[in-house]
Structure formats: C-alpha cells, structure tokens
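[stage:ingest] chain + small molecule (PRP)
[stage:ingest] validated
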Amino acid sequence: MENGTWLDEVPKRPHQPRTWSRELPIIADALGTSLSDRLLFAVPKKGRLHQACLDLLHGSDIQFHRHSRLDIALVKNHPLALIFLPAADIPTFVGEGRVDLGITGRDQVEEHECIAPPTETTGVTEVLDLDFGKCKLQVQVPAKGDLQRPEDLIGKNVVTSFTNLTERYFRKLEAEQAGGNGSADAPLKTKIKFVGGSVEAACALGVADGIVDLVESGETMRAAGLKAISTVVDTSAILIKSKQPSKPELVDLISARIRGVITAQKYVLCTYNIKRSQLEAACKITRGKRAPTITTLEEEGWVAVSVMVERKNIAVAMDQLTAAGAEDILVMKLENSRTG
Ligand SMILES: Nc1ncnc2c1ncn2[C@@H]1O[C@H](COP(=O)(O)OP(=O)(O)OP(=O)(O)O)[C@@H](O)[C@H]1O
Ligand SMILES: O=P(O)(O)OC[C@H]1O[C@H](OP(=O)(O)OP(=O)(O)O)[C@H](O)[C@@H]1O
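[stage:predict] done
[stage:export] tokens:
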C-alpha cells in the first residue's frame, strides 16, 4: 500500500456508536412499557465483561428477566431497566445522558474521551472500580522482528480497535521525537487502521507492522508470535454514571449495593486467637480495612481478633500469623458487605 493513503481509504472507528439508530426503536418498542420513569443501566451485551456483570447484578439482588434477542430487561424490584449494549458504545450512551448508569472498561471510556472530551454536562463520572476485566492496552510487534521500541513504529502501519487512543499515543511519541520542532497540528506519520477483532492476526497477514491490543494473560499475543513493547493504558471494568442522572438516590443505592458485592469478593474475614503480648505484631500483619476488632477471651492473657484481609494476601498473612504465634486461624468467605 502506498504511503500516506491508508488513513484516507479506511474510515476510522466512527464517533457515534453503530447501534445508535437501531437501539432507540428497540428501547421504545420493548415490552410495550414506558421507560421514562425508570433509571437506565447499560451492561455489556457480550464479550469479556458480560458474565461478570450478570454475576454482579445477581449479587446485588437486581432481579430481571431478559427475553431472548431483546436488548432491554425491566428490573422487577426497582424502577430500573437494563440495556444490553456493546461495551465500546456504553461511554457514548452514558456520556450523552441517554443512559444513567453503565459498566464498561476504563479503556473504552478513555477511547471515547479522546474524541468527546468531558464538559460540565456531558461525559461520564467514574463511580467505582469493579476489580475485574483487568488488562493492559499494549503496543505489540513481531517477537522475532527488528522493531524493538514504540518509536520504531513511527511512520509504519499500526492496526487496532482503539484508533483514538493509538492516535493520541503516537501523536505524543512523534511530537517527543521532533523535540521542540514538533507541532500539535502536524500530520500524523504513523498510519493507524481500525479492525473490530482478532487484531493479533494483522502482523502475520501483512497488514500491520505493529498492533495496539489488549493483553491479559499474554497467551493471545504469544500465540500470534508477538511481544509487548509499551503500555498505552492500564484498564479494568468500572461503574460509570452520567453527569445528570434521572434518579440520583437510586444511582446511590445501586452503587452502594454493587460496592458491597465487590468488597465482599475482594476481602475475606479472618479470625484468630493470640496472646495479648503478641497482638501488636499480629495487627501489623492484618491491619484490616478500618481496624481489627479485638475481643477479650475467657482465657487469661489471650484475645480473639476479627479482621478483613484482601483475598489475594490471605495465604501469606496466615503464614505470617502462624509464625507470630496466632492460633485457631479461620478464614471465611463474605457473601455481601456494607463497609465505610
Ligand atoms: N482478555 C481480557 N481480559 C480482561 N478484560 C478484557 C480482555 N479483553 C477485553 N477486556 C475488557 O473487556 C472490554 C470488552 O472487550 P471485548 O473484546 O469482550 O468486547 P466485545 O464487546 O465482545 O467486542 P468485540 O466484538 O470486539 O469482541 C474491553 O474493552 C476490556 O475493558
Ligand atoms: O492476553 P489474553 O489473556 O490472551 O487476552 C487478550 C485477548 O483478549 C481479547 O480478545 P477476545 O478474546 O475477547 O476476542 P477479540 O479478539 O475478538 O476481541 C483481546 O483483544 C486479546 O485478543
């Protein structure tokens, strides 16, 4: 392909979601009921975040029945309707205030904000990091090739589903390379092309010198003979709200419920008995979310400790507690929570 013709020939990802005109009639017709008195909550309709979101809704006791093929579900126990949308489109719907709440990746929000910067009334507010969907948007090149640094891709062909973040990244890189001579308006030398999926195939197929794609375990990248040379964005799933939600109290209630479920998934409750003389050392190991609860035992000189510990740290904490003289260490899964 001729240099300089790529961007002109291949339209980049459109600003308006592809489903915009299709979704509105669906919403209007769905179930023959008015949505005007309901808070609208957008949930990824498929993909990596879908099942985790359904589990979160279930854990928050948000009860709904979704008819097959319908992208809307009325919630039975709250004035709420769930709208199932592509994760990439959710920042647009929430950002424009068409939908009040949403779950999507931080990467999708940042991609959207590149072309629709937030204003006082538009754009999204992050309510909560949901602690799943963690991955990195990374610049990748063939593992056995000559390209070693992201700068080596300047002027070359880069394929991605995140054209706006990729453009912002290479624009900054090109400006840095140009030193004081770089202008913000200078035409982009790097040629960026949008593909909707299977981005990792682009180098092997000869359409790209490098790609910008999501990496979690790195299996997809390695299987495609690629290696990561730089990170554009660190991402995880987030709960977002519009700037002027229709029912702020319900937004707060749903957010508190979701926060409770996420906290319950993130922490375990650990209890143990320890001599009072060893208590200070033990409390340094298990500091708790706020502070440990200490109860005096009937047995002279002993106390019982009850404390929340991050699930990912519990095995090490148990080893350290044992070494510090703790006994009867029990760890319990939390079903749900409301904490400060
Ligand atoms: N491997 C992964 N590990 C963790 N989170 C991921 C992973 N891949 C994607 N995500 C998160 O899930 C979001 C949606 O990605 P996903 O590929 O599932 O989208 P999708 O809506 O199914 O679109 P597509 O049709 O492009 O597959 C991403 O923006 C990212 O935040
Ligand atoms: O590092 P890994 O654990 O291998 O995960 C990374 C892969 O996951 C996502 O794709 P997905 O499988 O959702 O399909 P897609 O390519 O159609 O987006 C992403 O686009 C990567 O290809």
